[in-house]
Amino acid sequence: MLIPSRETGFLHPRSSEITPRGIYEGRRDMLRLLAGGVAGAALATWAGRDAWAAATPRPGKLAALPGGASAVSGAVTMEKLTSYQDASSYNNFYEFGTDKADPARNAHTLKTSPWTVEVEGLVKKPGKFGIEDLLKLSSQEERIYRLRCVEGWSMVIPWVGYSLAELIKRVEPLGSAKYVEFVTLADKATMPYVGSRVLDWPYTEGLRMDEALHPLTLLAFGMYGEVLPNQNGAPVRIVVPWKYGFKSAKSIVKIRFTEKEPPTAWNKAARNEYGFYSNVNPNVDHPRWSQATERRIGEDGLFAKKRKTLLFNGYEAQVGQLYAGMDLQKYY
Ligand SMILES: Nc1nc2c(c(=O)[nH]1)N[C@H]1C(S)=C(S)[C@@H](COP(=O)(O)O)O[C@H]1N2
Ligand SMILES: [Mo]
User: What does UniProt say on post-translational modification here (predicted)?
Assistant: First the structure.
């Protein structure tokens, strides 16, 4: 059974740690949501996901990539999904331009097939995975995650993929592997801004091994039940829902296991503005703006209120222990 969290709207599997009061409040919230007009399917399954699936038909633009119901804690939400239109037309993908509208306009040139992802570095079983094999490596799940950009906007997107941990376990990292680096495609012929000086290409990102192994970290192949649109990082990207959007590297071609913290594109571009961790944190401001609130894309009418940003983007219950004892002001 899944229980909606009062604070975050996320549904959590019932467990012995949940207090009776928590369960009671969860039920009350669920009933309130249902009374508010959320489709009745949610009552039958308590999963919420079915209700959203019914309320959000497949966009019908790209090939279907159906996911199954996700049982991962924190991966199901009662929040209203961002529209497909917004999620696929307001993007950051600097290889295709720096304006939010550029990726949707320019990314049609990206050639997503054939595509291989190379696994290298400190692993027992390095190798090259064709995209089709990578897709089949584990059963896909649909997971509804918030993506929160460092610039203060957020979206709620139903991603299709599986935990990156499943791939990591298969390639057997060595004990010396402490970090995972993601290298993305940098092809001047198809990506008009590769070669420009905005960033150092290829765009790279990285995670600490325990972050990469966390079940919420997703290797994503699709969204809204279809393959990823090019502008969202086709054919395969990372989604790290508790970190600022730039950690979620798009169109990855290499996964490298390292002993040292890998350099990352935005940290190289502005060290004091973008740290390695970049966990969503309303208490640590960006040097040039506050991170305390955010604008949910699609809610930007004249009277739309900004939302309070939640620590770890609302996933504190799931990921807080990864940072126990760490000074988050220092490791921003
Ligand atoms: N390769 C690559 N990946 C990238 C980026 C980029 O410029 N290049 N932008 C990042 C940023 S800043 C954000 S907010 C998210 C946006 O993902 P979306 O367009 O799917 O919402 O992608 C991230 N991944
Ligand atoms: Mo971003």
Answer: Predicted to be exported by the Tat system. The position of the signal peptide cleavage has not been experimentally proven.
Given ligand 1 and candidates 92, 94, 226, 244, which is best to mutate, with the most ligand atoms within 8 Å of its CB? 92
Is 237 among the annotated ligand-binding positions?
yes
Cβ(246) – ligand 1 distance below 6 Å: yes
Q: Is 163 in the pocket of ligand 1 (CB under 6 A)?
A: no
User: What residues does 156 pair with on adjacent strands?
Assistant: 146
CA of 248 to the centre of ligand 1 (A): 6
Spell out the domains of the chain, with CATH numbers in brackets: 28-323 (3.90.420.10)
Answer yes or no: is pLDDT of 298 > 50: yes
- pLDDT more than 90, % of the chain: 77
- The DSSP annotation for 211-277 comes to HHHSTT-EEEEEETTEEPPGGGTSS-EEE-TTBBGGGS--SEEEEEEESSPPP-HHHHH-TTTS-SS
Is the pLDDT at 171 greater than 70? The verdict is yes
Return the residue whose CA atom lies nearest to atom 5 of ligand 1.
Answer: 93
Residue pair 209/178 in contact by the 8 Å Cβ criterion: yes
